[in-house]
Amino acid sequence: MGILKDNEHPRYTYEDYKQWEGKWELIEGFPYAISPSPSPKHQHISNNIARELGNKLENCIECRALLPVDWKISEDTVVQPDNLVICYPLEDKPYITKAPVLIFEVISKSTSFKDREIKYRLYEREGVKYYVIVDPDEKMAKAYQLKEGRYIKVSDITDETVQFDLGKCKIKFDFSKIWQ
Q1: Separation between Cα atoms, residue 164 and residue 147, nearest integer Å
Q2: Domain limits at 157?
């Protein structure tokens, strides 16, 4: 099981994580269950984000949109963003190891703190250029851009179109399409 102890709380590694049943994330050795399963509204919005990203990236040969996939940051940190964009070739591994350029997290009551606080700081530290937190209940998204190592809020978005400069390409993402 966990190999390290911190204030009597076991800390786990990627090797432990691989053995777990169900859906989990591991952040700095601490497990976070991804449960209950995302609501139909959450899944619908995430699918719409994936469709919009796929459409916008279809002419960009460098970047690709992915659905939840393990991002192994270190031996004690593995996360699964809801929607992400990478601008590098896929590795021949069951996970990615490099930071995505753009991440969307669709929050729920059970994930709000983790997505707004823990993952926010993690993604900022790991150099994710854009982080978008999508709140299905409010029909609002908050977009952040990494500048000089810190996230700066780009805007609060309901149905606007926002341009993301991914480096290899630029996309204009229409947020009105994710709520439909």
Answers
A1: 14
A2: 38-177
